[in-house]
Write a structure and sequence with these properties.
9% strand
Amino acid sequence: MGTAYLSGSKFRYGPSYRRLPDSETTLACSGRDELCRSVLNDDWVSHPTWASEESGFIAHKKNSYEEALHKSEEERHEYHVHLESMAHTISLLEPIAFKIGDMTPEERAVFRLSPDLGGRSRSIHQKIIKRVYGRENSQEVLQSLQDNPSVAVPV
């Protein structure tokens, strides 16, 4: 392959790769061993080249390897977004679990959660619960979180 060069304020590797900023490549990642760190790419991303019709340049078609790489990077990004959403929902429910733990049995019996589970977005948390528990069980879980949080939240 070619050599990396600086273009503007970004490092490029050929026409279709860009180096991620250090703030993105040094993110914590659990579950990686030495083999993963040696073979997985955390520094470079595929970047499409767009050309205007006036330039006379015709963009090349991606070969099967570039398509597979792009698809893999898209899936990785999607998984990252899902994991971040799940972590956000967990961080919303953890303080509620601690609050329930400090309540008396009488307070637990009357404690209820609103449909947004005490957060700012109702739909995000509902989507995450549907993703974790499945369509069939998610409505029951959501209803239990609202009606009987002292039992449902710790689970």
